[in-house]
Amino acid sequence: MTEASPLNRYQLAELGALLAEPSRAAMLLALMDGTMRPAGELASIAGVSAATASAHLKRLLDGGLLTLHEQGRHRYYRLASDEVAAWLEAMALPHASRITPKPAARDLTLCRARTCYRHLAGQLGVALCDAWLQRSWLRAESDGIVMMSAGADALVRAGWQTSTTRSLLTLHGRGCLDWTERRLHVGGPLGVAITSALLDAGWLRRAQRNRALLPTPDGLRRLAELGVELPG
């Protein structure tokens, strides 16, 4: 699943088969927040036995969707790359129109702000991308999205560490199509770094039960000062 080796029809069919099993899909969704999880935890999430989970995980590893991290006797699974996460997120786009105007309360937080692998997605992610592009703090180039000096200076004035904002100037991001908003948010290394900085600053915090990101009152106020506001 790389630009250097595009999918052929047989590989695409295999990927479709991997996603067609609900237990495997549940495991992949659980890893969309960028975490690493052991097989036992993924088995519990998918509602299958340890032996069944092991077989599913082997197929996902062989299919290139997961990677394995070994630490001593412990084995942890995670998504193979940011590109895999973006592909999984994009797979939901044909179903985005099925989202009701008033989604269930448990879904509202995911629509407002969530992690797409490790970067900010949802209404807040799209609003940030739009606002900072309009202010020329971000610039879309042929090979992705970059942070401009004016944007880094604005973040320093907002209280971010100078070292953090300088590192943003060295990173490239990409436009990632948001499955609920059907517009772009900032993905890639730049998107990951921005999201990490928002969490470190206390402007966002992670939900305990899913991949939602919860803006704090102070975070919403400070983001609004930077042109980023949630609709409604």
UniProtKB/TrEMBL annotation:
Annotated Pfam families: HTH_20
Positions of transmembrane segments: none
All residue ranges annotated as the HTH arsR-type domain in the record: 4-99
Protein's GO biological process: response to cadmium ion; response to lead ion
PROSITE patterns listed in its UniProt record: HTH_ARSR_2
GO molecular function, one term: DNA-binding transcription factor activity
This protein's name: ArsR family transcriptional regulator
Organism the protein comes from: Dyella monticola
